[in-house]
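pls design
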């Protein structure tokens, strides 16, 4: 982090939203969409889906292009502004809203809810995960499916202990430093962004918590859902000790 500069702490994705698609450019969203649709297909869900913690709507846009009636929600209004612009450019109708995954309400009931690309890892307390699962259960139709991913301690240990990244563009770019504490299972990413003043920088702190398979099993068992399974995100089979990310499916049986 720069020395002898005034640091302004700002909200997550207040400015980083503009760089989010660059930050996530390693993700093949088309493969993710294929996998998600393949996973839910055996249960023959209908067409009304919710992407909660949608980011800039890269998943929601691809699903809408495949004929899904999408609602997309994120806690950051800056992310939603970008998402709306992307959907408009693609000439797609997606219902956007600003909201929190733990207490979002809707007049709709949904056939599928997705929460992907580390959204759940932003919930640092088990009580918040319980609220998220309870709220999702309420938002789903009977037979509806909740599908989310979870980053594991192994992924954070492998990739995010002392991780640094620098990205520059005509607007200044950002510098990122991420460190992972295996004791707390917390990974903190500090994003430093230049401002119009050479003596001042903006800093966004993003904190996520990694979860073991046993943690996820406890959350699922304690939830209102009576059917669930946990998969390795690469193989879409049972997780192993080498799994760095889980895909979790829960179904609200009729």
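designed seq:
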């Amino acid at each position: 982090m720069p020395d002898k500069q005034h640091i302004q702490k700002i909200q997550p994705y207040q400015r980083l939203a503009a760089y989010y698609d660059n930050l996530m450019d390693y993700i093949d969203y088309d493969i993710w969409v294929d996998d998600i649709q393949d996973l839910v297909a055996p249960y023959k869900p209908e067409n009304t889906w919710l992407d909660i913690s949608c980011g800039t709507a890269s998943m929601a846009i691809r699903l809408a292009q495949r004929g899904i009636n999408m609602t997309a929600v994120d806690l950051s209004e800056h992310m939603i502004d970008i998402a709306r612009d992307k959907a408009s450019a693609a000439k797609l109708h997606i219902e956007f809203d600003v909201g929190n995954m733990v207490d979002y309400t809707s007049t709709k009931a949904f056939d599928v809810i997705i929460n992907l690309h580390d959204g759940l890892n932003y919930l640092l307390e088990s009580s918040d995960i319980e609220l998220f699962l309870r709220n999702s259960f309420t938002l789903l139709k009977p037979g509806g499916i909740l599908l989310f991913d979870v980053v594991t301690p192994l992924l954070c240990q492998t990739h995010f202990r002392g991780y640094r990244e620098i990205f520059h563009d005509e607007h200044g770019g950002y510098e990122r430093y991420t460190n992972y504490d295996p004791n707390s299972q917390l990974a903190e990413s500090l994003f430093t962004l230049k401002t119009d003043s050479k003596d001042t920088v903006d800093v966004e702190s993003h904190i996520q918590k990694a979860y073991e398979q046993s943690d996820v099993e406890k959350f699922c068992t304690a939830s209102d859902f009576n059917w669930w399974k946990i998969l390795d995100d690469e193989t879409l089979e049972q997780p192993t000790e080498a799994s760095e990310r889980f895909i979790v499916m829960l179904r609200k049986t009729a």
